[in-house]
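User: I'll paste a sequence; please echo it back and then give the predicted structure.

Assistant: Echoing your sequence first, then the prediction.
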Amino acid sequence: MNAQPLLIDSLNARWDRYKTELKNCRDEFSEEAVHGFRVAARRLLASLDLLRALLRDAKIKKIRRMLKDQLDNLDELRDAQVMLAEISENVHDQPSLQPFEEYLLRREKKLMHAARREIKSLKIGELTKRIRKLEEAIAESQPDGLDPLPAVDEAYAGVIQRYGRIDPAQPATIHRLRIAFKKFRYMVESIHPILEGFPKDTLKRMHDYQTSMGEIQDMEAALQELAGFEKNAPEGYDPAPARAYYTEQHTLAISRYLKNKGEVTIFWRAAPDQPFPKENQP
């Protein structure tokens, strides 16, 4: 398989998207713009993960670290915004969430200011040089050594390994699966144009599967943030109702995921000599 053109095109497309979303953030900073930038950076990271498995190039590690640092600096803002979005839909039925919502709004404001400064100060000159050198490395490599399927097979094997270790009583095991699955999913998105016989609806189903695991992590982040709020809550505030609400939502999110957790076993071929699963397979 000569995947060289695809790998170059995918890297360039994701790099261009990253630059576009960064410009959007700088021109009109908003929650939506930050979200777009985060998604673009994560997809670029996935391309790098795939290329690292193929090229074993040391420069890729440095590029990944630069991008990962950018994403890490926006994690707290993302968590606060997810919590606020969830609260806005339920605060009328759960008035105990209102003090927590007010706290999160203040926190979001501070984090938005910090994120704006971070985005404005980003210098991508060095990153640009490294991406260009990486493109040259792909072009100069032997085409027959750039088959991406073994790398995706390996990533999927890691997913299945973590899937086998899921313990509903230990949500951290689901979180570890989510991290591995996200890497696998973005790899598949990178190469799906050359995947003969790959079901057309699978990419969306993979997105939904990842989302179901993400909802568990979101509730865990909310419980952790609530615990921090409780330490400095207004006098007379009773955190028990809010804590009970998030604990229940966390339990429900785990239950929803467990109901369809086995779907992960049909997102990719069982072995390199096996075909891809059929479309709409239950």
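Residues 148-282 form one domain. The longest helix spans residues 202-231.
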